[in-house]
What we know:
The structure is a homodimer.
Chain A: E1 2-5, H1 9-23, E2 30-33, H2 36-44, E3 48-49, E4 60-63, E5 67-69, E6 74-75, H3 82-90, E7 95-99, E8 104-105, E9 113-117, H4 122-133, E10 136-139, E11 155-160, H5 168-176, E12 181-184, E13 186-187, E14 193-197, E15 203-206, H6 212-215
Parallel strand pairs in A: 1-2, 1-4, 2-3, 4-7, 5-8, 7-14
Antiparallel strand pairs in A: 5-6, 6-13, 9-11, 9-12, 10-11, 14-15
Amino acid sequence: MTVGLGTGSTAAYAITALGERVRSGGLRITALSTSQASEELARRSGIRTASWDAVRRFDISIDGADEIDGRFRMIKGGGAALLREKIVAAASVDEVIVVDPSKIKGELGAHPLPLVVAPFGWQVTRDRLEQAFGCAAAVRAAVNNQPLVTDDGLHVLDLQFDGALPDPDTLEARLKAIPGVLEVGLFIGLCQRLVVGYDDGRVKEFVPGDDILTATVPS
Amino acid sequence: MTVGLGTGSTAAYAITALGERVRSGGLRITALSTSQASEELARRSGIRTASWDAVRRFDISIDGADEIDGRFRMIKGGGAALLREKIVAAASVDEVIVVDPSKIKGELGAHPLPLVVAPFGWQVTRDRLEQAFGCAAAVRAAVNNQPLVTDDGLHVLDLQFDGALPDPDTLEARLKAIPGVLEVGLFIGLCQRLVVGYDDGRVKEFVPGDDILTATVPS
């Protein structure tokens, strides 16, 4: 199987668990990662990695999410890998999202919405976004307090709206109409399966159409 | 004045001419360029250059175009600088486009439409574009025959449609819905002034609303 590997703390758990099954001989997979961090973790875990020269689609991909609503619409990008994550998700037959129940929301937007922007003129892109959408846009900083540089050499702006995201189904296109906005951390129609893990070790699985808002409330 | 400098052969003529006026003492400008090539040419021409730390808008910008139609819609990106050119155009009070009459077209699309794409997975982005839009998509090559790397570290795909561009007013949003497509070389509503230079040295100037299709036919 060809497997897409997400980025972030949840994806790291999945990569480690996949590696254990590979090393025990039960699993034969080739993986492509959405970040240098996940790529290194996969290699250390004993997972065979491939490049785009050999891969065009993924049988399955495993990733996390910052928020997911009842219609399986997600905010992603807390790990700054949203550009690569969306490319892999769109190329995946079965995109599996793993979350804890705290990520499931009635509406999206408590978590800031990450955008990937061009470093060239990011300041005017930020100003234009704030003016056009009435939101606060903050450039994500690295440990050196300079704008964070993604694996693709780009910057991230985190958009905080006053309340829920305005019309999520059209928001991505409206944001991408601003020059300099290269990708939007809204993932719609890209989750084929949701795996919810609870504190007590229980796991529940859902597919689009399931009522996750009531079904995932811990009993 | 703050001046945005485009990229390409036409912009290079403009930069050289601006430099002559600066050196003769008649012009006091600060410029920001849309490529490393234009930046170097501006410096060599004696033009003072600035960074985005000091610039938020441009009084005027000067750039070329690969095609422009009767409604001032343009195809740009032959010089691979379309991402930066669009950011500067959107921040310009007066975007001046300089062309020769051969660039003025009844409909857009004889020239391939350049897209900026993420290097990560550009092969699946290309395949998806060809399938979704029924066009041919070729990665632009550098002199070493590898995919060209733009000043922003990205790749360029050139889209050739069978005939004219399908519905140019909505095409950009439809293309940007494909993950990995970061910018589109369609510039709509971004040209405030068109300067047409003829072989015989004559120059004509037009603004949106003018009938350039008949007015620019050489007499």
